Amino acid sequence: MHIGIDTRLTYYRTGGISTYMRRLVSALESIDTRNEYTIFQSRKASEMLTKRFKTANLWTPCHHRIERFALSVELARFNLDVLHSPDFIPPLQGARKHIITVHDLTFLHYPQHLTQEARHYYNDQIKMAVKQANHILADSNATKTDLVNMLDVPAEKITVHMLGVEEQFKPLDASLLEAQRQKHQLPQQFILFVGTFEPRKNILGLLQAYKKLVDDWSDAPPIVLVGRRGWLFDETMQSVRDLNLGNRVLWRENIDDDDLPAVYNLASVLVLPSFYEGFGFPALEAMACGTVPIVSNRSSLPEVVGEVGLQINPDDTHAIKEAIQKALTDTEWQQLNRKLGLERAKQFRWETTAQIALSVYEAVGKR
């Protein structure tokens, strides 16, 4: 078969879906020698995602109002048997069969956490996308359940393929860690958050819980927030300022991906109290580095961490505070969960993700 994968988003964004695209292509290169592939990229992209597959540059920008039409025109000449749209919005035409990946339905669960422009874009497209697709890949059983319950997608039309963890996320040598501590001006002990700075991530709830912790425990270590600015950042920042936590809260924007494993290694605990996650890479990456995660008891996060660490109600700041305090003070519990986390992280491999995707390509392409 001739299979196309739309990876244009990698030019516009890093992390999350873009990481999924990069690692899926790389893993497919390793495991599939039977089928022909064309990897579609933005004409502006300089990054090469593949060493062996064909590539083609496209003019159509991501998330444009005429994207579906314009992309159909550009793809017509490639004669694709299957087109995989990992950013979930397929063109009107462009291939004999269409497969999409739906990572999450946060825009339906929490529309107030998006800008009006983003809300309109996703809400207007999702029903069309799941109806048009011949098959849907989902990152978690939670997303599959949402697709069935919220959009009436038949369960048999959805295949779950949990994502993988990058090989660079692992326990690191102490000398390397100390160099990274100095580079990023990190304290000896700290509570870590990793993710986009946007309302869905519940940063305000995390810091409200942290304020409770500081009120009870004056020597509590500082909290380090690592990530990039997202939707409604200014509103979030104003609420954070009102907490008057001062230099106890350390913002570290745009830390290089190569340095992130060291940041996880240095952290005392990771806290990811998101209202909703399609998968939750930081929890998996933390476990792979030997850092214990505290996560929300919602959406996909329980599937990622299993019995490792602690799960909390993201609306309960007291529960978040108590979980952080336990993780910081119960040494025996932390050592046990560190070992459990390292073992659990080994279960998440990109080769498995790609193998499931490939089985879907071949099954759908033969219909």
Describe this structure in words.
By secondary structure, this protein is α/β, with parallel strands linked by helices. It folds into 2 domains: 2-164 and 349-365, Rossmann fold, CATH 3.40.50.2000; 174-345, Glycogen Phosphorylase B (Rossmann fold), CATH 3.40.50.2000. The protein is built from 15 helices and 13 strands. It has helices spanning 9-12, 17-31, 67-75, 106-109, 116-132, 141-151, 174-184, 203-216, 233-241, 260-266, 281-288, 301-305, 317-329, 331-345, 350-365; strands at residues 2-6, 36-42, 54-58, 80-85, 95-102, 135-138, 158-160, 191-194, 223-227, 249-253, 269-272, 293-296, 310-312. It has a 7-stranded parallel sheet, with helices on both faces. A 6-stranded parallel sheet has the order 10-9-8-11-12-13, sandwiched between helices. Strand 11, helix 11 and strand 12 form a beta-alpha-beta unit. Helix 11 packs across helix 14. The longest helix has 17 residues, at 116-132. The model has no long low-confidence stretch (mean pLDDT 93).
Topology:
Blueprint: E1 2-6, H1 9-12, H2 17-31, E2 36-42, E3 54-58, H3 67-75, E4 80-85, E5 95-102, H4 106-109, H5 116-132, E6 135-138, H6 141-151, E7 158-160, H7 174-184, E8 191-194, H8 203-216, E9 223-227, H9 233-241, E10 249-253, H10 260-266, E11 269-272, H11 281-288, E12 293-296, H12 301-305, E13 310-312, H13 317-329, H14 331-345, H15 350-365
Parallel strand pairs: 1-2, 1-4, 2-3, 4-5, 5-6, 6-7, 8-9, 8-11, 9-10, 11-12, 12-13
